[in-house]
Amino acid sequence: MDTNSGFKSTFLWGGATAANQIEGAYDKDGKGMSSADFIEFIPKEERVGDHHMEINSEHIQKILTGEHEGRFPKRDGIDFYNTYKEDIQLLAEMGFKAFRMSIHWSRIFPKGYEQEPNEAGLAFYDAIFDTLLSYDIEPVVTLSHYETPFGLTEKYNGWAGRQVIEHFVHYAETVFKRYKNKVKYWMTFNEINIINISPFTGGGIISDRETNPMEASYQALHHQFVASSLATKKLKSIIPNAKMGCMLARMIHYPNTCNPEDVLKAQQDNQMNLLYTDVQSLGEYPTYYKKFLSDNELTLNITDSDLAIIKQYPVDYISFSYYMSLLSSSSPEGNITQGNLMNSLKNPYLESSDWGWQIDPTGLRVVLNELWDRYKKPLFIVENGLGAKDIVEDGQIHDNYRIEYLKKHISEAKRAVEDGVDLMGYLAWGPIDLVSMSTSEMTKRYGFIYVDQDDYGNGSKKRIKKDSFNWYKNIISTNGSDL
Ligand code: BG6
To answer: What is the C-alpha separation between 194 and 34, in angstroms, rounded?
Structure first.
């Protein structure tokens, strides 16, 4: 029997980004508004929970009429729209083999439902892909990363409307045809599970427009499942050797104690997190989900032809983000800490980041083994990293904390490969500092490359290599053997 040792020679080392967090130029060259353009920066002291989960019709209306003036950092990003050549050159200097990015749907179809694409938007991504390929960096492209065109929100309340499926498939077909000689690795929806936690972020849905918001978010999820499979069908006919992946925010739940009630609760929480990959990888709704729907009195419109397409076109690989682990308890009382759009009881064995996310490298090995055992499909870590405050001293950033975090996680990924897991690659989140998804801050930084820009958009935008830059460069050049 073969045993694996170490990362394969084709391992895709690199980093991951999203258009709305880096590009800026939100209204340039024909781009339309997207959900991300409505997410406001609120200073920490004024924040109540995850502020952007509270988007409602009245608030959106006030933004549109100008009655509410806020600061919307995702409209400006880090100006990648204008700096991509220099930024990609820096990634190439680190030896990147792959770069994950998203296409901003509303750059291609400004309102989301047009028939004719915006040529300037298509040309922009041609230029990006050509630059990446000139350095032998493989583009890994997300079709939708929290960037639903706002036109679709106005017309259908985002993914709550079934009609959005056909608009998405038209968009997917358009970009597959355009970039068929440039992009091999695709994924449909970033962290598809977020639609049921933050419907506006995940699906452009304004919840108070729905009589039953929870039902609407699960109906919208169903639409995304169907759209993903239909897009996969198109991909296979347009670029036969391309690979389609799904993308899950894997939030592994441990039982808070060995009380069987806690174990059961953790199992149920894990099922509800793995629901998404169960459907997209195995091609059918699991039985526990049917019980969940009936327990919550949710009635979804799911047709036989929807189920047939989901069955026929599952994904080729499973990608996921991993930042932390969570605890489940049948009687959740105790210290609570923050997580990625989800809170948890505090795990006494783990340290937390400055934002409360519990740091658990071993959990990554657990997740990799679990996903491999469950699906037997290639896995791809497409987000992992430490959001931290960086201090510039004499023009340098000594981010040993980031190096430590990444070193431990990559070491656990390597151990999982030695366990027998088929791992395609590792993409660190935010290789260049970018606007935070959850808080729209710049203070929370993930990069190997510092961007001189603060929460209010002040700064020269100069790029500075952090200590982690050369560290990661060495990891890549040694294929992870020098950890
Ligand atoms: C993931 C998202 O959930 O976490 C990214 O896909 C996001 O878009 C990343 O940036 C880190 O989250 P945050 O809130 O620290 O930016």
So the answer is: 17
